Fold this sequence. Notes:
By secondary structure, chain A is of the alpha/beta class. Chain A has helices at residues 2-6, 10-15, 26-29, 42-50, 59-62, 70-78, 82-92, 96-102, 114-118, 128-142, 165-176, 193-196, 205-217, 234-239, 271-280, 306-317, 338-346, 415-418, 449-452, 457-477, and strands at 157-161, 180-184, 221-223, 245-248, 252-255, 268-270, 298-302, 322-327, 350-353, 355-362, 368-381, 387-391, 397-400, 403-406, 410-412, 444-446. Chain A is globular.
Amino acid sequence: MIETRKKLTPKERLAIPPQEMPAQDPIVRRQNMEEVALGYTEEQAQLEALRCLQCKNAPCVASCPVRIDIPGFIAQIAEGNYKEALSILRASNLFPAICGRVCPQEVQCQSTCTVGRSLKDIEKAVSIGRLERFAADWERFHGELDVPPVKPPSGKRVAIIGSGPAGLAAAADLAKEGHEVTIFEAFHKPGGVMIYGIPEFRLPKAIVQREIEILEKMGVKIITNFLVGRTRTLRDLLEKDGFHAIFIGSGAGLPKFMGIPGENLVGVFSANEYLTRANLMKAYERGKADTPIYPAKRVAVLGGGNVAMDAARMALRLGAEEVFVIYRRTEKEMPARAEEVAHAKEEGIIFRFLENAKRILGDDKSRVVGIECLSYELGEPDASGRRRPVEIPGSEHVMDVDSVIVAIGNESHPLLLQTNPEIAVDRHGHIITDETGKTSMERVYAGGDIVLGSATVILAMGQGRRAAASIHRFLIEN
Amino acid sequence: MHKIVSKKRLSEEVFRITVEAPYIAEARKPGQFVIVQRNSDYAERIPLTIADADPIEGTVTMIFQTVGKSTHKLAELEEGEYIQNILGPLGRPTHIEKVGRVVCVGGGIGAAPLYPIAQGMKQAGNHLIVILGARTKELLIMEEEMRALADELIVVTDDGSYGRKALVTEPLKELCQAFPRPDCVVAIGPPIMMKFCAETTRPFGIKTIVSLNTIMIDGTGMCGGCRVSVGGETKFVCVDGPEFDGHLVDFNNMMLRLSAYKEIEQKAHEECHLEMQLKQMQSGKGKGNP
Ligand SMILES: Cc1cc2nc3c(=O)[nH]c(=O)nc-3n(C[C@H](O)[C@H](O)[C@H](O)COP(=O)(O)OP(=O)(O)OC[C@H]3O[C@@H](n4cnc5c(N)ncnc54)[C@H](O)[C@@H]3O)c2cc1C
Ligand SMILES: Cc1cc2nc3c(=O)[nH]c(=O)nc-3n(C[C@H](O)[C@H](O)[C@H](O)COP(=O)(O)OP(=O)(O)OC[C@H]3O[C@@H](n4cnc5c(N)ncnc54)[C@H](O)[C@@H]3O)c2cc1C
Ligand code: SF4
Ligand code: SF4
Ligand code: FES
């Protein structure tokens, strides 16, 4: 069988139809919190793997932020060697089960895939992310916890602030080198956005918890309910608590609001608040959770990114009858992952493109009853090359909604910087680092959203690893 | 995990608990608060002011009123039991300095968060006048502590069951009219009380600090649930506050936002209240009564 497969010609490979991702039925899933995408079967994974042309120059590799040996791991899947596939993945990516699910593949690895190019349709590129997920899930279902070996204790101690992908990745690499690693997390559960922001139906929490369990088995200590800056300062950690270096992966905090009238009405939420109530505080388990969720039947979500998609789809699952996503540009410009947009549409989310909120309307008790929007059209391209939306004068119109969720992005977390003025930041409040992740403060490194602004899981992870490498260099030299 | 080392029922609805939390005890300053969550699974995160702390013992004390489900559940925990999560100290500390005459106004449970501030104000060398108010005698707390601290103490109750029959704003107004005038007023209590205290001092142009008790989730500046409008600008109570210039706060909007979950909370509260009463009846006494 394998023999014949190896002999497939490129033409034959291109003729294999792209494998569809099995998913829960849209009517059913809009009522539950279970994962939407179900994952390839073994047979599907092998067929999809056979579509890869094993390109010599492998353009896909260059467009993966952590340069995974993509043809390498796919070849192993085609041969049924899932364990080997996974070790290739893990060599570059610590969390393949997570990235396989949440990476925006269509703008990263899959954007340059030769198969997609040959078929003149990027959607027909090899589904690298789904294969990555398959290999990682296969291990989850068939293997023991695979705890990487750890070098003998180096006697050096590193504090990691924040347990999102940046912090977890840095912790893993430093622990492997034998350093004593302690993660400080403000929330009561570790995982960062992967726990409090991205919903269960897209990234099951058990997957993140498993990665954290591996870290703990490697000796990493996690201290929750600890807000660096308030509970203790960076200086305290370095001077009183004997840490030799610090990595800051505190993420993007402070939610942005539109600055329009009516934004403080009852029933207006930041997506962060809405999703934290729903995910971290488990408000979706009604009757069990003490944290309430605002009851709303018609919900407007402002924004067009992953956060907006998550908030909209969550609102549906929490009992909304109609959910509108209001976005200033067109579908083409939406930064959300293509798959999430497609899933949202299937679930019945209503997209209102080329519209933007002008003000939010309330009743005599200050509860949201509507939103006034303006229509837009696309004008001249701006500096980024995207055609800029321009408002159409006099196009005001009102939509009846009883809740509004603002998902237009985050500014950086102010607290750590407020309490540690010696760390240099740019005018957006993002920490400035050199190319190794070092900040302006001695022995302090940073990475992830606090440096990049709102980024992605894989980029945050990559930055965590880069900083870990330079922290390690610093520790052995000193 | 934070062990409850002591618990006392101060009145029908008010409890004082002291818990182990060494880092917080060491770092906290007057005016700061913590977020308390009984357990990680389904419990709510609720903000409570640090009423006192002992850095040597490594403990912090909170005084809270049972107003809803989470505070009732918290009141059910006994000495020796544990609270799973406590985050803090949060918020900006009170700006304490010597200004001359300071009036501290505490309404109901507000007397608890007021205490460390009054303490700080006194230590800084101010002449300290304290006004304590409650609906009725039963609900008055912190009287002895405040009496020991203040240069003058004025007690009022809404129904006249103790002290003077008045709202806190009456003696406050008299103090504003008298000479020498207060240089600063700190008012902590229900939003409506803080609003009227601010209205009382406004015509006299006396600086008035209030401590806002909005709904919170994370307490770290991440969710925006605690936002209030102060002087026309949106502020986050957990990182920019909890204290603000009372003359600039939009109290009406804040009160409406506090009522966002009223119906859901009401139901949960009634259930909890009944449960608590039932338990008390079964054990034949008010558990933890003084
Ligand atoms: C709803 C949502 C959906 C998303 N969807 C996707 C997606 O599909 N694909 C994708 O690639 N990316 C997605 N992203 C973006 C991605 O999650 C982030 O880019 C990534 O999580 C950033 O990682 P980080 O480690 O920098 O920070 P975070 O994940 O934000 O973690 C930071 C952690 O630090 C803690 N912290 C902050 N300050 C302190 C302090 N002072 N002391 C102690 N702890 C502190 C925080 O509580 C938090 O747990 C999404 C983001 C959101 C909000
Ligand atoms: C910075 C800060 C410090 C605080 N310090 C203290 C303290 O020292 N002692 C104390 O008893 N309380 C304090 N509070 C208020 C306390 O957090 C609330 O009473 C508590 O969250 C109510 O939870 P619950 O589930 O029992 O009641 P819920 O069911 O949430 O509410 C019951 C009733 O109380 C009202 N309510 C809800 N939240 C608040 C609130 N934050 N403030 C006032 N009323 C509210 C609701 O409108 C409702 O009518 C503080 C709040 C903040 C923001
Ligand atoms: S990590 Fe992300 S970008 Fe890289 S191969 Fe995997 S899915 Fe593609
Ligand atoms: S570009 Fe596409 S076809 Fe070529 S190696 Fe990468 S995944 Fe395979
Ligand atoms: S409580 Fe979330 S930002 Fe203040």
